UniProtKB/TrEMBL annotation:
Protein name: Saccharopine dehydrogenase NADP binding domain-containing protein
Alphabetical list of InterPro entries matching this protein: NAD(P)-bd_dom_sf, Sacchrp_dh_NADP-bd
Taxonomic superkingdom: Eukaryota
Sequence ranges assigned to domain Saccharopine dehydrogenase NADP binding in this UniProt record: 10-113
Pfam families given in the database record: Sacchrp_dh_NADP (PF03435)
Amino acid sequence: ARDLLATYSHSIEKLIIADSNNERLDILRQSLTDSPIEIHVIDVTDRQIILSLLVKCDVYINAVPTFVGLQMNIFHACFEAKRNYLEYGGMGIYTVQQKAEHDQWEKAEIIAILGLGADPGLFNILCRVVADRLDRIDKMNLYWTAKFIGDENSILIPPYNLSTVLAEYGNPSQQFLNGKLPQVPAQSGFETIDLPEPFTGIQELHMNVWF
């Protein structure tokens, strides 16, 4: 919200923020005083409420946790309202379903940007930088890692949103295997890699897929 309301985002006239939690909205409202925002406490399962807010905006940013189970409902509401759609993450399972509707979104001239994730576009740039410096590339493997800073302890400190981390380990995922993209059970598909400094040692990773 702060980035969207910053002076360098001069083309944004108003930010409409909706949440089911009034306390979270109050905290946000207090931190964004004198900003062009409009706050709504809503039931995100109510399609008519979603549609009534969509008609007031140009772009919808979906920050509802993916495995709440409303990903496709919200996606289709944006299509119905003919509003451009952007999401932080949809996981591979939902992304495949969304990409299957590419032609109808293109025909309707509505933009949908899927699965921005923790570093939108950064991996694309890094891959291009590497590609420009090599004569030949057979394959690129991309890994997202995090290192715990400080003394070892028994307290779980997730590298990013805890609900997302748990969802990735507790739900089926899409994995690119032998030229196909099958859905596989949770925590299946492991890869052993020898990480360089500062991520020393042999690591066995559960593989998940983003698009």
